[in-house]
Amino acid sequence: MLPVAARSPLPALLALLWALLPGPGGAQTSVYPKELIIPRGGSMLVNCSTSCDQHTLLGLETHLNKKEVASGSNWKTYELSYIQEDTTPVCYSTCHNNQSKAPMSLTVYWFPERVELAPLPQWQPVGENLTLHCQVEGGAPRTHLSVMLFQGEKLLSRQPAVGTPVAEVTATVLARRDDHGTNFSCRTELDLRPQELGLFQNSSVPSQLRTFVLPKLRPHLVTPGIVEVDTQWSVTCTLDGLFPVSEAQVHLALEDQRLKPTIKYSKDSLLATALVEVTPREEGIHQLTCAVILGNQSRRTRENVTIYSFPAPNLTLSESEVPEGTMVSVECKAHAGAVVTLSWDQAESSSAQTTLNATAEHNGRGFLCSAALEVAGNVLHKNKTQKLFVLYGPRLDKETCPGNWTWEEGTPQTLRCQASGNPIPKLDCHRKGDGALLPIGDLRPVTRDISGTYVCQATSRRGAVTREVVVNVIYHQSNLITIIAVAALILGIAGTVGLAAYLYNRQRKIRKYKLQEAAAMKLNTPPSQPSARAPLSSCTFPAAAMPGPLPGLLRALLGLWAALGLGLIGLSVVAQEPLWADLQPRVALVERGGSLWLNCSTNCPRPERGGLETSLRRNGTQRGLRWLARQLVDIREPETQPVCFFRCARRTLQARGLIRTFQRPDRVELMPLPVWQPVGENFTLSCRVPGAGPRGSLTVTLLRGARELVHRSFSGESPRARGAVLTAAVLARREDHGANFSCRAELDLRPHGLGLFENRSAPRMLRTFALSPEPPRLAVPRLLEVGSERPVSCTLDGLFPASEARVYLALGDQRLNPDIILEGDALRATATATASAEQEGARQLVCSVTLGGESRETWENVTIYSFPAPLLTLSETSVQEGKTVTVSCAAGARALVTLDGVPAAVPGQPVQLQLNATVNDDRRSFFCDATLEVDGEILSKKESTELRVLYAPRLDDSDCPRSWTWPEGPEQTLRCEARGNPAPSVHCARPDGGAVLALGLLGPITRALAGTYRCTAANVQGEAVKDVTLTVEYAPALDSVSCPERITWLEGTEASLSCVAHGVPPPNVSCVRSGEVEVIEGLLHVAREHAGTYRCEATNSRGSAAKDVAITVEYGPSFEELSCPSNWTWVEGSGRLFSCEVDGKPQPRVECIGSRGTTERVLLPLAPPDPSPRAPSIPSEPTSGIYTCNATNQHGSMVKMVAVSVESPPKMDESTCPSHQTWLEGAEAVGPACAALGRPSPQVSCSREGGPWPQRIHVSRQDAGTYLCLATNAHGTDTRTITVGVEYRPVVAELAASPPGGVRPGGNFTLTCRAEAWPPAQISWRAPPGALNIGLSSNNSTLSVAGALGSHGGEYECAATNAHGRHARRITVRVTGPWLWVAVGGAVGGAALLAAGAGLAFYVQSTACKKGEYNVQEAESSGEAVCLNGAGGSTGGNASAQGGTEPDGTAETPAGGEVFSIQLTSA
User: Fold this and answer.
1) What number of other Cβ atoms are within 10 A of residue 477's Cβ?
2) Does residue 165 have a cis peptide bond before it, meaning omega lies within 30 degrees of 0?
3) I need a labelling partner for 1341 at 20 to 30 A (CA). Which of 293, 622, 897, 952 fits?
4) CA–CA separation, 1411 vs 647, rounded Å?
5) Measured between alpha carbons, how far is 695 from 95 in angstroms, rounded to an integer?
6) Is 975 helix (H, G, I), strand (E, B) or coil?
7) Pick from 390, 462, 454: which is nearest to 417 by CA?
8) Which phi and psi (to 5°) does residue 701 adopt?
């Protein structure tokens, strides 16, 4: 119910309008409001007024419940309640005998009580039109009510609601595939937005549409035309073009035997497969039926199958194992009607029996018994085979055991020697002489130690046989040349030693002979005194006595010098570093299709040529003196070995590398899982990772969700192997239903520095199921009446997942649409079975539950019968009192009827009854019973009817009392009922034509209903009248007109407080001030203390009403120093306004205007009296000076002078305190440059964050960081964070070479330079003159040289430069080669050999002298030989001897030789 708006000011407003209306000559009647829309059952206020200047008749004409709630001399306000329908109340008035009227339009709105979408068909064929029906009951106003039909959220149709009381809207749509599973709904909109009430919607329950497509073609049934008994065979039934294919059901049956097909769905196709097993009793021709059911339609096809019996033939041998020479009989038999044939080897006989003499050739021979039978035009064959085994002794022949084998040593051969016989003989071969065993049957390399003659013996329990076998092994004398070479070397060494010994001995003998000859000559010469005494250490030989200067010694010295030269040359060769070639990288791993740079280098000083041999594609080449680099592209081979080569001094230097490719696991494929997998059975997970490799680095994991099932690493596989397959058998469980299985492949190349490459297959979801082997339980009625509906149910336990199960329920050929209820693993399908007259008789109700391609089925018999309800008729259903009525009861031909307990004589005969109608017979019921026997059960049906007797109305005090007294408020039902037929209508209205009572409706009792009413009951038979009085009592009410809530008095005047209350019975009213007990009465002299709240209370027998009345006392303005100070300081940024509160009522208006020291007439913003979050802040800085404040209200004004001053808190910004400051290292430390604005002037201090700021004289790098500066004055603080950066000159902190020390020619070296500076320094290099092919990094911090030359040796300088200076460092690089070490080694070795040669010469000379002296003493038996130094005579010496003194001899100096002297002394 809408609330009544602005009830209290409405009368006053209407009174004001009346005062403005013209005089009596143009008196008019007005109504307010003229138009209104309210909810049904609501109430409202209507004001009727007139412009007449005298007392007049004024009222409201309406059939609604009305109550006058307020009135004046020319206006009245009525309350209309419980408004149920649109109406047009009329205000009327009579002024000077002139009557005028003013109608108003009252519209009632209410929402629809029912919005219902008619049920959709259970299945709708695609391509056919579907009509949607929506019914809307109730709702008003209909002009604003529209009905919409939706498909999902898509609007199909919008139509106005037409028709009462039920509006029906239809729309036709074409069913499509996309509509399957779509929800259709109906929605109403009551649009009252033009009336500012909003848009009201209501929707029906959505209905889901199921569409289907079933092609006109019949299913394709594949089955063999002939089938053998006791065999299992497969039949398939397919049908394409189904939608939705998962909802299709398949019925496969062989005659009356229902098959259990496995159904596979694929897109819009269906494939049903079933296994059929037949028994011998089913032999003959049978019909196989396949029916596909979808929606409410089906397609069926049939094929004939011939079932036959054809046992295999019987083949018998008299004995299956016989000794050689035994007679054996063979017999072949077959089924009656079959043609048999017996054959063995290549022989064939039409005879079914044969006899043969068993020989060794018959051992293992097979016999074939073949039978042929014609079935349905097809010739069928069956065979039976059996083998004959003949026992005979061992045999060794040249075919199975050759007598001679000749093989080459080292070749793999298999030594074969087989013996035949039954039983199989044992064979051994032993070599003659040593009995060595010949290894027979093994593949092995031939060695010479197995050659020889062997005796092979085969033995069994039927005898023994022997055979000789010769094995020849051919081999080559490959070490003869080595033996000859070694022997020649030994002979050469021995000859050389012997020749040296011979030459030495011959030279010794020659010396001895010469000495002897010289001694003899000396004895024949007279002695002479020598000129001088020779030293004891010297001796002199005459030239004629010696052979000269020892030619052997000279040859030895020449050989020594030649050996020295050869040694120097060999030493230089040995000392030289060996030549090499290098390939980098030596081993590389590259992604398949990628590229790689290979670098070839050598230490050869002058290589002739070089290159890179490989089968891979080359893209670019870079060369140096002793190096080359080539880029290999599009590398796809799993493994390749490039060769780097150089030609140097007629030698080829090589280095071999290894390049392997890898391929990421870009494709990881998990093979499709079965559509449905039975729980408890294994299924196969198979994962393929094609092309990924190398396989040895590959790991494949099968996953269930995130859990690993199988993990396999292929480590140890060949590096060339690629791709992998991992297969595992997994046991299906319930928990696996809906689980995602996936495969993860990981290629781990982290050991090669390339990382881990991982990929996963797309997950595949597994659906598992469990289907109980038990058939469903079917609950059906045994009897079913034509046209009736009976529930049937089908229950099956042990299903998983039960929600995926499909249920097929059919009564005969009629398919039912069940409702499925799931409880755990149990399924219960309920449907309503309706039988037609065509189905009358015995029918079969079938229930089939399908889950995961398997199904379980059961059926029950139902008897359908026809039993129409009995026919009960009255001659007249409504009669006048006193007339005669005939009642008849009849039923079907086989039914027995009874009318009100009176049975018919025989079945099929009707019963009649007659009576005279009275008032007591009104609404009398008559009953007709019929019974029928069906299938042993007695069925009964009843029919009833009612007789109506017509008579005039009657109003009794019990049904319509003469007086009512009710309290106002509680809902009551006003009843005044009258008896009569037809049912009389009762109308109670005031005699003056006023209000009408709403009888029979529950509604609130209002005071407007009070009064006397005349109730009239009438029907076509007559009329009855009765007066009724209604009294309504209600509690007192204090309204705003007679007792206003707020009263205003002026201080110093006189006033009184009075309130008038309305109520039945009339109430008493008293007013008391809150907190006091004294009742306020009479006139009062108003003072401020009279202001306050007073409690006025009205009381009668129905209750009381109280109301608070607030009295306000108004007075002129006045200033107080506390609330409006004479001096005020404004702080910038505070947002505060000057507060100048003035006492006075109503609240005075205050305005402060500048006078002295300020801009003339400038306004000072003032704070509002009641501060709030929305209070305005001061827009700008006020001006200091003197302001004049003036306070004014309707009762007077007052003035006050105010002095204003302006100050501000500290403030720092980028201009006064920059956030980023830069210092220079070494400059004078003065601290951050920061200042602050504010009044009074703030103090600024700065401190370093994270620790104290050390006081330094000069800036250092440690001063860099973040500083917090704080500005403070009396009005607050301001902080600012600044960042200080310290810049400094560059310093080269590190200059290093890699490798350290020197570098070989052709080698690589790198120089690294690191500098410390801010801002960062620019790096520059200075290299030795002539140094080429120098590479620099992007920031110049690294200098690199590849293939160093002698010109790269020298001093390198690295310089760092920034805005504050420059700094440089130097480093020396030495490039040294192996020839320096060769020269040094050769010189040292030569000096050592010269020293050794000189020592050897001295040793030989001294030895020869000693040997000569020894020989002289031996020849002369006495004397002393002294070797004399020098070429001339030597100083003589005195010598004495026993027997006399010899004269000094003279020495001769032969030309061109040494001088030898021999002095002989006698014994």
Assistant:
1) 7
2) yes
3) 622
4) 59
5) 115
6) coil
7) 454
8) -130, 130
- In what helix (H) or strand (E) does residue 820 lie, and over which residues does it extend? strand 819-823
Contact (Cβ atoms closer than 8 angstroms) between residue 1285 and residue 1224: no
Which segments of 350-500 are extended strands (E)?
353-357, 365-375, 378-395, 404-408, 412-414, 420-422, 426-431, 443-445, 452-460, 463-474
| Residue in the structure block whose two tokens are 């299956």 | 320
First to last CA, the chain: 180
How do 284-294 and 971-973 pair as beta strands?
Answer: unpaired
Q: Three-state DSSP class for 561?
A: helix
The pair of three-digit structure tokens given for residue 657, joined into one six-digit string: 């590398």
Which pLDDT score, from 0 to 100, does residue 19 have? 43
Torsion over CA of 1255, 1256, 1260 and 1261, rounded to 10 degrees? -10
Q: What span, in angstroms and rounded, lies between the C-alpha atoms of 316 and 355? A: 12
Pairing of strands 963-967, 1022-1037: parallel
HSE-up of residue 612 (Cα within 13 Å, Cβ side): 30
743 alpha-carbon distance from chain centroid: 14
What are the residue ranges of helices labelled H in 351-436? none
3-state secondary structure of 1409: helix
Q: What is the model's pLDDT at position 1433?
A: 39
DSSP string computed for 79-103: EEEEE-S-B--EEEEEETTEEEEEE
**Pair of tokens at residue 1236:** 């602050």
CA distance 953 to 977: 10
Provide the 8-state DSSP code for 389.
Answer: E
In terms of Cα–Cα distance, which of 492, 679, 696 is closest to 589? 696
Residue 552: name the closest of 1460, 1407, 1394, 1462 by CA.
1407
- Tokens, residue 890: 């009849």
1291 contacts 1358 by C-beta, under 8 angstroms: no
Q: Render the burial of 770-783: b for 16+ CB within 10 Å, e for the rest.
A: bbbeeebebebeeb
For strand 1127-1131 and strand 1196-1211, is the pairing parallel, antiparallel, or unpaired?
parallel
Q: What is the mean pLDDT of each run of 10 residues along the chain (1467 residues)?
A: 40 44 63 90 90 83 89 89 90 85 91 89 91 90 90 90 85 91 92 86 89 92 90 91 91 88 90 90 88 88 90 87 89 83 57 81 86 84 88 86 84 83 90 85 80 91 89 65 57 70 72 61 47 37 41 54 51 57 89 90 86 88 88 90 89 90 92 90 92 91 91 88 91 91 93 88 92 91 87 93 90 88 91 87 89 87 87 88 88 84 85 85 88 85 89 85 85 85 86 76 80 88 88 86 86 84 87 84 84 90 88 88 85 80 87 72 76 56 82 87 86 90 85 87 85 77 87 90 90 90 87 92 91 87 89 92 92 74 50 58 50 44 38 37 37 37 35
- Residue where the block lists tokens 């009410």: 1037
CB 157 within 8 A of CB 171: yes
Please report the DSSP string for 883-943 in residue order: -EEEEEEE--TT-EEEETTEE-SSTT--EEEEEE--GGGTTEEEEEEEEEEETTEEEEEEE
CA-wise closest residue to 1422 among 1441, 1447, 1408:
1441
The residue assigned the tokens 């501000």 is 1208
Instruction: Identify whether the C-beta of residue 765 lies closer than 8 Å to the C-beta of residue 739.
Output: yes
Q: Tell me the residue length of the chain.
A: 1467
Kindly state the helix (H) or strand (E) to which residue 20 belongs, with its residue range.
helix 9-20
Query: Tokens 């059929």 — which residue?
Result: 276
Six token digits for residue 1089: 């203390």
Which two three-digit tokens encode residue 1433?
């005579």
Could you give the 3-state DSSP secondary structure of residue 522? Answer: helix
CB 981 within 8 A of CB 949: yes
Distance in angstroms (rounded) separating the CA atoms of residues 284 and 304: 10
pLDDT of residue 1174: 55
Assess contact for 250 and 220: CB atoms under 8 A. Answer: no
